[in-house]
Design a protein that fits this description.
With about 575 residues, the chain is α/β, with parallel strands linked by helices. It has 3 domains: about 110 residues, Glucose Oxidase, domain 1; about 120 residues, Enzyme I, Chain A, domain 2 (Orthogonal Bundle); about 300 residues, TIM Barrel, CATH 3.20.20. Helices cover about 50% and strands about 15% of the residues. The protein has an 8-stranded mixed β-sheet. Strands 9-10-11-12-13-14-15-16 form an 8-stranded parallel beta barrel, surrounded by 8 helices. Strand 12, helix 15 and strand 13 form a beta-alpha-beta unit. Helix 4 runs antiparallel to helix 5. The two termini are about 30 Å apart. The structure holds phosphoenolpyruvate (PEP) and magnesium ion. Magnesium ion binds next to helix 18.
């Protein structure tokens, strides 16, 4: 048995499939036989055409013909006589291998497109880089596993699951996830929870401990995995799976009920979603709205930026699905651990302190304006609110408001409907935002506390680094004080204060958050009923007494000793 971090509750039993991101290493030594190399190139191109057509045919079924056709276009791009000739000429003239020639020619071509100040043509750069990577993998014999195609009862084992990998998962086939890296608030964990897949994270060297096909039990509640379990252990865990199912069934009595404390304080209990389709689950699980739509997932697991029309449809569909209930849509939050390869961003030394979220959006307002316009257009179809991530200074909020105002003028002149009073709020997830919460509260329509980042930035700890995980805790007095201050500042200005970080669903913290006066709890769809049960068992006056004591604690240990009672 190995113990890691409990990333996503539940128990899964299945067979291991190891997912490896293999590195592309190109040898640059000169070749002798250029004819043989030209043949290798042709074989590579043939395999590319075959594989791409097969992939596109599959995509016709899963994501639709439009995206599949983009992939088919890659075949023409690679087989463009100019491109093929350049690659062949380089092999002959420089006596380099097919992979060196492919790498150079396609990268130069991509670079050329990237320089053109036209969004559509810049997109070509992304296409050429994608073609390059796939061609290099074919020439070097590197095989990638297609996660969407793994068999039923698969337990995925990986160093780390990137959000774009996770986005390709078919939850029906995945019994569990085990990773070497990542903590409870890493995005793979968040997505695993959203998909109700048991996950255990941060098991050192797990990729070397297991082999493909090994049987394994993943206990995402205790954070344990059991490799090659015997029959008796499997039976024991099957009983546990049954118990968990029964527990879940008992929560049904909280469905359709308001989220109200024992002494009658009503709060909003809404959901975090990553894809438009998740809104269905939010409704099924009785969410009272959407408190966080992480729109960056719309930009992942594809080869190009979603168009205004695609985004509009996505936002509109969520607004309509929620039928007049509030829908808080967070604008693009990329960077940190969320990469979007086709944007071609530079590697950074400190991605979590770098070109992330609103910082990226304000510099790339060509991309941001498209999103804001799509959001405004969709606001005519439901109660959409806009939320700005990673705010650290008031200018960022003002800049977003100015952009929105400009776009509103455009929409007016085009006679396009939108909500003229759309609310623009701030995601409170940096110590800077906390320190100026009083100022931000005067200009923001609402706050939503992002405890995942707020904890990391307040404690100066990387969310996914197992070595310093002991410091990454919302129970730390520093973090609790930050949360309390943000809620107080928001309340003083009379704005709604919600929380969309994972802490909102933490049974130990809910009483404290109620005492601080939190108005809205945004949790994963699967946590709605559980959280409603906890809220309904709380008495706010008692919670306040507890909070008074907790806020006098000097250490996390003392805090936990009180909360555990
Ligand atoms: C947060 O930081 O708490 C949050 C909800 O945002 P994300 O986890 O997407 O960074
Ligand atoms: Mg965040």
């Amino acid at each position: 048995m190995y113990k890691g971090i409990a990333g996503s509750e539940g128990i899964g039993i299945g067979k291991v499939v190891i997912i490896e991101e293999k590195e592309i290493n190109i040898e640059t030594k000169k070749i002798e036989d250029t004819d043989a190399e030209l043949n290798r190139l042709q074989e590579g191109i043939e395999k590319f055409v075959e594989a791409t057509n097969a992939m596109a045919d599959r995509m016709d079924e899963t994501v639709g013909k439009k995206d599949a056709d983009i992939l088919r276009g890659h075949i023409q791009m690679l087989q463009d006589p100019m491109i093929e000739e350049q690659i062949s000429a380089l092999i002959v003239a420089e006596k380099v291998s097919a992979e060196v020639a492919v790498d150079q020619v396609l990268e130069q071509t991509a670079e050329m497109f990237a320089q053109i100040p036209d969004e559509l043509l810049q997109q070509r750069a992304t296409d050429f880089r994608d073609i390059k990577t796939r061609m290099l993998k074919l020439l070097l014999g590197i095989e990638d596993i297609d996660i969407s195609q793994v068999p039923k009862d698969t337990v995925l084992v990986a160093k780390d699951l990137t959000p774009s990998m996770t986005a390709g998962i078919n939850p029906d086939n995945i019994a569990g996830i085990i990773t070497e890296l990542g903590g409870r608030t890493s995005h793979s964990a968040i997505l695993a929870r959203a998909m109700e897949i048991p996950a255990v994270l941060s098991i050192e060297n797990v990729c070397s401990l297991v082999s493909n096909g090994d049987e394994v039990i993943v206990d995402g509640t205790s954070g344990e995995i059991i490799l090659k379990p015997d029959e008796a252990t499997i039976e024991e865990y099957k009983v546990k799976i049954d118990e968990l199912r029964k527990e879940k069934e008992l929560l049904v009595k909280y469905a359709g009920k308001p989220s109200v404390t024992k002494d009658g304080v009503k709060v909003e209990l809404v959901c975090n979603i990553g894809k438009p389709e998740d809104a269905k689950k939010a409704v099924e699980c009785d969410g009272e709205g959407i408190g966080l739509f992480r729109t960056e997932f719309l930009f992942m697991d594809r080869d190009s930026i979603p168009t205004e029309e695609e985004q509009f449809e996505a936002y509109k569909s969520v607004a309509e699905k929620m039928n007049g209930k509030p829908v808080i849509i967070r604008t693009l939050d990329i960077g940190g651990d969320k990469e979007i390869p086709y944007l071609g961003l530079d590697k950074e030394e400190n991605p979590f302190l770098g070109f992330r979220a609103i910082r990226f959006c304000l510099q790339r307002d060509d991309i941001y304006k498209v999103q804001l316009r799509a959001l405004l257009r969709a606001s005519a179809f439901g109660k959409i609110k806009i939320m700005v991530p990673l705010v650290t200074c008031i200018e960022e909020l003002r800049s977003v408001k100015a952009l929105v105002k400009d776009i509103m003028k455009d929409l007016d002149s085009e006679n396009i409907k939108y909500n003229k009073n759309i609310e623009i709020g701030v995601m409170m997830e940096t110590p800077a935002a906390c320190m100026i919460a009083d100022l931000l509260a005067k200009e923001a329509a609402f706050f939503s506390i992002g405890t995942n980042d707020l904890t990391g930035y307040t404690m100066a700890v990387d969310r996914g680094n197992a070595k310093v995980a002991y410091l990454y805790s919302t129970y730390q007095p520093a973090v609790l004080r930050a949360i309390k201050k943000i809620i107080e500042c928001g309340k003083k200005e009379g704005i709604m204060v919600g929380m969309c970080g994972e802490a909102a669903a933490d049974a130990k913290l809910v009483p404290l958050l109620l005492a601080f006066g939190l108005d809205e709890f945004s949790v994963s769809a699967t946590s709605v009923l559980k959280t409603r049960k906890i809220i309904s068992e709380c008495d706010v006056n008692e919670c306040r007494e507890l909070a008074d004591k907790v806020m006098q604690c000097s250490t996390q240990e003392e805090v936990l000793a009180l909360l555990d009672k």
